[in-house]
Amino acid sequence: MSRRRQSISPVKTRVIFVYETGNYDTNNGIILHIISHRHSKGGSITMISVDHQVALERLSGILDGGLDFHDQKSGNAVHRIHAFPAKFPPQIPRTFIQSLTDPGDTVLDPMMGSGTTVLESFLLGRKAIGYDVDPLSVLLSKTKTTPIHQEEALALSKEIVRRANDAFYRWRKEIEAELCVFWDEKTRDFVNYWFSRDVQIALKSILNEIERIEDEDLKDFFKICFSAIIITKTGGISLALDLAHTRPHRVRSAIDWNGNVIGQYSEAGFPPGMFHLKRIRSPFEEFERRCRQNLMFIRDISSGTRQTDFFTPFEEQTERITPHVSYGDAQNIPLASSCIDLVVTSPPYAMNAIDYMRAHKFSLVWLGYSISNLTTQRKKYIGSEGVMDGYSHSLPGGVMESVERLDRKKGLALYKYYSEMKNVLTETFRVLKPGGTAVFVVGDSTIRGQCLHIPEHLCAIGKSIGFSSPLIGTRRLDRNRRMMPASTKIRRMHEEYVLVFSKPSSVSPGSADAPQSSG
User: Fold this and answer.
1) Number of domains into which the chain is organized
2) 20 to 30 Å CA-CA from 105: which of 63, 166, 279, 336?
3) CA 326 – CA 312 distance, rounded (Å)
4) Are 243 and 220 in the same domain?
5) What does pTM read for this prediction?
6) Same domain, yes or no, for 281 and 317?
7) Do residues 286 and 216 touch, judged by C-beta distance below 8 A?
8) Which regions of 315-379 does DSSP assign to beta strands (E)?
9) What percent of the chain has pLDDT over 70?
10) Residue 358 — pLDDT band, cuts 50, 70, 90?
11) 414 pLDDT exceeds 70?
12) For residue 181, is it within any domain?
């Protein structure tokens, strides 16, 4: 079949029609791919109404405006209060929120991760709703959007450190006794492997003081500060390195803030096979420093309930609306149908490329979660490890063909990812208002030299559900960011894809807000 293309006319846009040949064009670094609807001789093309042409022009204009943001600052320091792997830049949700919604409209992120979309919606005066199955994501997103009293929090942080430091020396035996009963055996073994004894006592003394706080918003803020001194890229107070990239490995030797040596170390040299010597800073000093830093980061949200949009300074101030953030599964969104104006989200990568729980459990075990509980929770992630028993062939034909080309184990894992994403897209379609838009930021994967074409297949799944003319925009990644863990078979990412799904303004009675179950 020849690779024929037809441009949209007479609308002035750079979107190119693509026949079902796997071919697509590049315009100024942005790849736009329209998944077709109607088969005709020589190819499959999309028939577009005048209203849909206008909407398509608007969306393609957003994508054509550039999505890299390499030299741009995030615009708000609140995004920096806690490390989180593979965060997408806040400029992406901000761009779509400003272009496609008005103040007071409702924006959903059903897989909110670090809460980027929720925070941007909050700052721009939209009603933000966010869900996630990760307890740390829920706590972090809530903290990012909850104003607290700055002076009270600063004074309290100093009091927490003073009292905890005093308890570390005066009540050491009592705290050690608490640690013996704080976890079950499996969780305690995990903590003993990754945290030195003095660090455990210091952290427990800090945590005891945090738990004394009656104000739940302040308590959550200090819990995030507590977690942030554990989950870091290279520092942190555990015996792990590179927790921020979800690939922790334990150092062979360390020296703590009191000069105590942990593991094998001698002045003659490093022990064989050691990654490097880690210097563990004082948990008390790190916690106080992080509290001060985070209070500076959240000054804007704590200073009032009105927001000036500094990117369009001549607009009127917008009233901020308290977001709804809670635990929730994107495959079963706890919302009524047709209630959301815009969805902006970044699903986990396929094939468990980034194992969020692998890092998050380092702080969650201190916040009341056992290793067994977190292992169960981890299985609820989209694209997590584990496979289905077999294929039910509920996916579009081209998607199934790509799955069946892999060996059975990898094929079943990829099938599980696509099946879960079909559930997510089905729920997204249901909760969107007619004419609403969903934006998904995804990566692609290569296994044994074979590109999986995940963006195209997700668009095909979306089309099968009822979305019209999905678009794919490509953004080039900063070479120093969004790096995949070295242990995966997936190459370092240099680009990712912005998928734009549109729910038709009018849908036939049989499929509008209740698309068929994905099975």
Assistant:
1) 2
2) 63
3) 31
4) yes
5) 0.82
6) no
7) no
8) 318-319, 324-327, 340-345
9) 70
10) confident
11) yes
12) yes
Which residue type occupies 121? S
Residues 116 and 190 in one domain: no
Q: Which of 494, 475, 470 is nearest to 483 (CA)?
A: 494
SS3 17: strand
- Residue 397, token pair as written in the block: 């034909």
Tokens 């706590």 correspond to what residue? Answer: 139
478-to-115, 128, 192, 495 alpha-carbon distances in Å: 21, 28, 37, 9
Q: Could you tell me the two tokens for 53?
A: 């042409």
Q: Are residues 117 and 164 in the same domain?
A: no
Question: Of 45 and 142, which is predicted with more confidence?
Answer: 142
- On average, the pLDDT of the chain sits at 79
Both 64 and 32 in one domain: the answer is yes
How many angstroms separate the Cα of 510 from the Cα of each of 39, 332, 466, 469, 507?
Answer: 22, 20, 11, 20, 8
Domain containing 48 equals 25-133+309-353+371-502
List phi, psi (to 5°) of 473.
Answer: -110, 140
Task: Convert 460-516 into a string of H (helix), E (strand) and C (coil).
Answer: HHHHHHCCEEEEEEEEECCCCCCCCCCCCCCCCCCEEEEEEEECCCCCCCCCCCCCC
pLDDT digits 0-9 by tens, 331-356: 999 999 999 999 999 998 876 667 78
Q: What are phi and psi of 362, to 5 degrees?
A: -65, -35
- Number of CB atoms found within 10 A of residue 136's CB: 26
Q: Beta strand pairing status for 432-442 and 340-345?
A: parallel
On whether residue 383 sits in a domain, the answer given is yes
Residue 485 confidence (pLDDT) above 80 = no
**Whether residue 74 is found in the same domain as residue 170:** no
Q: What is the pLDDT at residue 72?
A: 57
Tokens of 359: 């890092």
Q: How far apart are CA 362 and CA 223, in angstroms?
A: 13
Contact 259, 280 (CB under 8 A): no
348: which DSSP letter?
P
- Segment 18-75, tens digit of pLDDT: 323 333 333 333 334 444 333 333 433 344 444 555 566 667 666 665 665 556 555 5
- CATH number at 76 reads 3.40.50.150
Torsion sign over Cα 144, 145, 151, 153: negative
